[in-house]
Amino acid sequence: MLMDLLRPPSGKDIKISSDSKSLCNIFKVMPFVSLKVFSVTDRINAMLCQQQYWRSRPGRQPSFSLFPARLRRRSSLIWPLLFLSSSRSEPPRPPSAIVKSSPSILSFPCTRYLPLLEITESSIFICHRDSDFVSLKMDFGRQVFTVDLLERYAAKGHGVITCMAAGNDVIVLGTSKGWIIRHDFGIGDSYDVDLSVGRTGDQSIHRVFVDPGGSHCIATVVGSGGAETFYIHAKWSKPRVLSKLKGLVVNAVAWNKQQITEASTKEIILGTDNGQIHEMAVDEKDKREKHIKFLFELTEVPEAFMGLQMETANISNAGTRYYVMAVTPRRLYSFTGIGSLETVFASYLDRAVHFMELPGENPNSELHFFIKQRRAVHFAWLSGAGIYHGGLNFGASHISEDGDENFVENKALLNYSKLSEGSEAVKPSSLAISEYHFLLLIGNKVKVVNRISEQIIEELHFELASESLPRGILGLSSDASAGLFYAYDQHSIFQVSVNDEGRDMWKVYLDMEDYATALAICRNALQRDQVYLAQAEAAFSGKDFFRAASFYAKINYILSFEEITLKFISVNEQDALRTFLLRKLDNLSKEDKCQITMISTWATELYLDKINRLLLEDDSTSSDRRLEYQSIIKEFRAFLSDSKDVLDEATTMKLLESYGRVDELVFFASLRGQYEIVVHHYIQQGEVKKALEVLRKPGVPMDLQYKFAPDLIMLDAYETVESWMTTSNLNPRKLIPAMMRYSSEPHAKNETHEVIKYLEYCVHDQNNEDPGIHNLLLSLYAKQEDDSAFLRFLQCKFGKGRENGPEFFYDPKYALRLCLKEKRMRACVHIYSMMSMHEEAVALALQVDPELAKVEADKVEDDEELRKRLWLLVAKHVIEQEKGAKRENIRKAIAFLKETDGLLKIEDILPFFPDFALIDDFREAICSSLEDYNKQIELLKQEMNDATRGADSIRNDISALAQRYAVIERDEECGVCRRKILNVGGDYGIARGYTSVGSVTPFYVFPCSHAFHAQCLIAHVTRCTDQDQAERILDLQKQLTLLGGETRKESSGSLTEEPIVNLTPVDKLRFQLDDAIASECPFCGELMIREISLPFILPDEEQEVNSWQIKPQNHPIQKGLSLPV
Fold first, then answer.
1. Burial letters for 869-889: b for 16+ Cβ neighbours within 10 Å, e otherwise?
2. Which residue range or ranges hold the Pep3/Vps18 beta-propeller domain (predicted)?
3. Is the N-terminal amide bond of 62 cis, ω within 30° of 0?
4. What is the DSSP letter of 984?
């Protein structure tokens, strides 16, 4: 059954490719039961099954296994997994595996199932992914440094090689016969230069120096005639002697790497064997040196300078900062300062030079900088005591005791005793430095020493020619630009190549327990996992379980989830296990939804278990336990808040419920939006305020407000109503059942009726128009003892000011029935009146209060007859209800007549008195009535006279208006066309239907003195007024023109001019036209005011505007003619 589980998925074949069949005996492909399944129990069982499978097969235990990466596929089984098996026996290989001959690549065509793999013991796997497959590149025993013969007879017969320098794929050799041989491997060219021309005796090249760009070369020739220094540029065929350096042996040159160019060396410094430092600058175009200056000399301990290095940096607003390091056989000097080199070295005339002296003396003393991104980051000095090295940090300065800035960090001394196998230490004869290693020339071999661990990792051997055996390898040289190193003997050049020297440096730092640096240089997840594992194991061994949990959580590949959890379970560290789970959640991606949910659920249970254990523990340290309990509760709630979206809702709630954590259950329900559970819990606890706070949250459905309203208002009506009043978008109609339930309960007389308060808020503040709300408020008012509020409510006109809207929103018939039932007679009177049932209102009012009846009778204003009838009802009631003496009754009746404001006369109320009443009792009233009639007659006469006088005044005004005139000057202009008003127009006016004034064109004159031709005024008003008015004016003008033409035809048959008398239709049209165009001055009236809102350029005038635009024209310009611009 287990073997069935171990079979690979169908159709997923593995192909193993190798360059040798021996690889097939090393790597075996076996299916594997993944630990990535759906439950913790299943994962542990799967791991146990795997162990049982290997135990049942003695001798077949794999010596190394790689665990799978996190997979995206939800499956309890994955395949394949790569094993490094033992040599004694091998697990069976699936028949689908095929071996092919190709480079060292293992290709797997099913990337969704494959982990990221790497083995870094004796073999290295470098994994990379593409769209279709995962390939594993294998490097078996590949060395970091390799040696190749570059040139066997490099001196070309010009003696033997004495020195060498390299830069930018350019190698410059110096020979014993004074020749310089330059090999440019970049372009495949080489040439030689004889520096011994014109000199007698033996001439040998002492030292040769090449800049990092390979363009500039300095060489020192030593012979019987003394020393001489030459400068050679790559483009020159002949060297140039530096005459100012004659007699000085140059041992070291420091190039200005930041400023040097192909054409100029800029400022460089040279160190001589007599302890002097000189500055020099050479330009290729000048064919000679710009200057050579003396800078410094060792006077206290005169020694030869054996090595020089220089770094520069531009300081804002300060100039250039120089840092120079120089070595002698016993000392290392450092110079620093800002300004020029001359200024920097001149400052040491007044202060001591900063130096480091080590015991012993090394005649082959060398100083090297390792350059990275055009900046020195490390240095190494080949001293007599050992290799003194350190880091260079030019971003930070350290002030020494003598005031110098020192940029050296992490200084260390590598003792030569670590390099020798015997008891006697052997000093290297030459040194080269790479990023992580020292290359030390000892005898005829180069030992590669790791700079960090100070361990020898490799030894490089050279195939020397027989003629080179006596002296062997002479020295080492480095090409910082190309990243290459060279070794040379008397005849040959060897190239030392670097093959990814930093690939195993993470292991070095890991062995030194420098975990931070190891992590920083790790290249893939498997390397980082091993660092995390080492940190975790160290912390776990030290019983720092929480720190170990943090590191274990970062491991993804080399240790399974189950193994880690079993570690903590085995030592009963539940809290550390919880920490591991929480940190693991932080490292999982969003795609691992299943794993996130499982781990979060497990963490939830561990939290609950911790809380439960704290509650059950002894109470002897109650204060500490209480603080711890509060802290874990706070932490647990924060975890629930962060994990609310990944936790399974039903499972989590069951867990919380099973542990009795009601508060946390409510908290989690609130996080998941299960507000119904939260509100229900608070209502059960009687915590109305908390329930209302939940309901007021923005995301809570409004339906819950209506659902829990009956319970909430019964528990605390005040708080509930206050919450309703502060909640927006609440529909009061849906709260009617809750309000009815509250209203049905008895309340104290002095108690505020909260439902009435809320309904008043809805009606008055929110302008609610729902009839149900108004009817409910009405019914509650009707049941109150004090009906003042009830009457005020009835008198309010809530719909006042709205078009075609009602003045009230309650049902008046329902209100009338309710008032009659509750015996609210005054309210009934008001409702009758509101329903225009005035007679019923007055009749009912007379039963309650006659004064109320008078008010109701006086409300009718638009129906005089009805109003009189109502007042008669009141009068009849008043007269019939009087029980006093007859004369007193009559006086009251007469007084009542005065209250009607003349609506009722004495004759109207006489039928209500007895038939046998004495007329003397009414004499006063009758006389008063007759006098009133007389006054009314006189008032009518006066009004008639006033009307007659007004008509006469109007006639006089009309006559005077016909006689008004205006004086027109001869040169008066029309306001529109700017032509003179009194122009002779011939028959112009008659043709348009106007009366002619001689031969003058018809015109209009306004009181404001503006004058217009008739036709101009019509055109102006038509253009400025609206379309309907313009069409009306044009229609009137057309009709007037037609009628005017007919009239002329009738009069053309007579030779004598006779007045036209039948022009009434023409005059009517002319009056209408005058009213349309001349009712006001177009410049001073409303027409001009309306033109303010019009644009200056109308849409139909765009073509006219475009015609005024200046368009550029291309005119041919005669050649040679200069035109002014």
1. ebbbbbbebbbeeeeeeeeeb
2. 155-498
3. no
4. B
Going by C-alpha positions, the residue among 304, 271, 264 that lies closest to residue 285 is 264
CB atoms within 10 A of CB 1053: 6
Residue 269 has pLDDT above 60, yes or no: yes
Q: What is the pLDDT of residue 712?
A: 93
Nearest residue to 892 (alpha-carbon basis) of 916, 869, 875, 867: 875
Quick one: pLDDT at residue 982? 84
Q: Are 292 and 267 in contact (CB under 8 A)?
A: no
Residue 396: pLDDT over 80:
no
Q: Which of 306, 347, 346 is nearest to 328 (CA)?
A: 306
- The answer to whether residue 446 scores a pLDDT higher than 70 is yes
| Alpha-carbon span 554 to 818, nearest angstrom | 78
Cβ-based neighbour number of residue 644 at 10 Å: 17
Kind and range of the H or E run holding 854: helix 850-858
What is the structure's pLDDT at 843? Answer: 80
**Which residues have CB under 8 Å from 1114's CB, separation 6+?**
none
The strand pair at 430-433 and 408-415 is best described as unpaired
Q: What percent of the chain has pLDDT over 90?
A: 39
Contact 894, 924 (CB under 8 A): yes
**Stated length of the chain:** 1125
In tens, the pLDDT along 543-602 reads 999 999 999 999 998 999 999 999 999 999 999 999 999 999 998 988 999 999 999 999
Most confident among 79-83, 320-324, 1099-1103 (mean pLDDT): 320-324
Distance between CA atoms of 341 and 323, rounded to whole angstroms? 10
Q: What distance lies between CA 159 and its chain's CA centroid? A: 72
pLDDT score of 891: 65
- Taking each helix axis from N to C terminus, what angle separates 561-570 and 545-552, rounded to the nearest 10 degrees? 170
Is the confidence at residue 85, as pLDDT, over 50?
Answer: no
Instruction: Report the pLDDT value the prediction gives residue 106, as an integer from 0 to 100.
Output: 36
List of domains in the chain: 1-142 (no CATH), 145-498 (2.130.10.10), 836-964 (no CATH), 972-1051+1061-1090 (no CATH)
Concatenated DSSP letters of 105-174? EEEES-GGGPPP---BSSEEEEEEE-SS-EEEEEEES--SEEEEEEESSTTTTSS-EEEEEEETTEEEEE
**Residues 432/476, Cβ–Cβ less than 8 Å:** yes
- pLDDT band at residue 431 under the 50/70/90 scheme: very high
Cα–Cα distance, 394 to 406 (Å, whole number): 9
Sheet with strand 319-327: strands edge to edge: 307-315, 319-327, 331-338, 354-357
Q: For residue 318, what pLDDT band results from cuts at 50, 70 and 90? A: confident
* Positions of E strands within 416-469: 430-433, 437-442, 445-450, 456-461
> How many Å apart are CA 542 and CA 562, to the nearest integer?
21
CB atoms closer than 10 angstroms to residue 673: 14
Q: For strand 445-450 and strand 456-461, is the pairing parallel, antiparallel, or unpaired? A: antiparallel
CA distance 822 to 817: 9
Structure tokens at 1078: 């001349």
Phi, psi at residue 704, to the nearest 5°?
Answer: -65, -30
Residue 565 tokens, joined:
């959890």
Lowest mean pLDDT among 519-528, 638-647, 905-914, 975-984: 905-914
Does residue 813 carry a pLDDT above 80?
yes
- Residue 1120 clears pLDDT 50, i.e. is over it: no
